Amino acid sequence: MSVDPLKFRNALGQFTTGVCVVTANPKGYEPFGMTVNSFASVSLDPALVLWSLRNDSECYAAFEAAKGFAINVLSLDQAALSNRYSQKDDHNLDSAHYRIGKSGLPILRGVLTSFECDIWQRYDGGDHLILVGKVSEMNVSPTGEPLVFHSGRYRELR
Prior knowledge:
With 158 residues, this protein is mostly beta strands. Helices cover 13% and strands 42% of the residues.
């Protein structure tokens, strides 16, 4: 049985996800970020997380050169950041949007949580590359509501 890609994407959209911006600054690149909703936990010990990147992404070469990345979990009031870093060919970070974390990675300001990661492994995932990171640092905000995405649009938890 063959699965229609558009129908499959729409079906996956029924799964509510958080919204993150993955940031990095490998040698030879300006600090950059891209919006994703493919973030997931993998392991508690060691602390591992993953996200996936389309093979045809304009950020592919930069993440291929990266030794680490940061996952920035957006808060409800950061939809504009999500929109900003989801734009094609416009991923350089605005200097007002980030600070440099303990590991040297760019961390977005005002996020609910950030995970600074060293790349643990890269795996082929069909039309995506799966990047697994080992968390070296994290920062968690004690308050705030998450930005979530469901069925093609942002939502609020109630």
